[in-house]
Amino acid sequence: MADGQVAKRLQSELMNLMMEGVPGVSAFPDGDNYTQWTGTIHGSDVGPYKGMKFQLSLVFPKDYPYSAPTVKFMTGCFHPNVDMSGNICLDILKDKWSATYTVKSILLSIQSLLDEPNNDSPLNNQAASLWSQQEEYKRLVAKKYAEG
């Protein structure tokens, strides 16, 4: 896809995201550059990330939507599938990517991942090993989130 087509697709996705007003997720281009966005997801009302808000960086390749964007947490996130640099281990951002995915579906998948990690493929072994001990896990998540 040419750069103009990528921008057109992303403009359409932005409009859809704004019009739908999906609770707990949002994303906007960084200025006039439609290939770099900042996204926001909120933790669910019931999981260990309740009341927390996370910023994400989304960088779209020249052949988007045929290749997945690079998505990273900019806000620190203690999670089994997120490393210390904010990299995310999520199949739809890797080998399960499809051109039918949108910014909205990416953000909702990451939001869902917060409460449903894949402990079989951890990037953070400490978080993965603590996941089964939810009270201790929640305590550590709250502590790390407060530290920023």
UniProtKB/TrEMBL annotation:
Belongs to the ubiquitin-conjugating enzyme family. InterPro entries: Ub_conjugating_enzyme, UBC, UBQ-conjugating_AS, UBQ-conjugating_enzyme/RWD. The keyword Nucleotide-binding applies. It holds the Pfam family UQ_con. Residues 5-148 form the UBC core domain. This is UBC core domain-containing protein. Keywords: ATP-binding, Nucleotide-binding, Transferase, Ubl conjugation pathway. GO terms for molecular function: ATP binding; transferase activity. The active site is at residue 89.
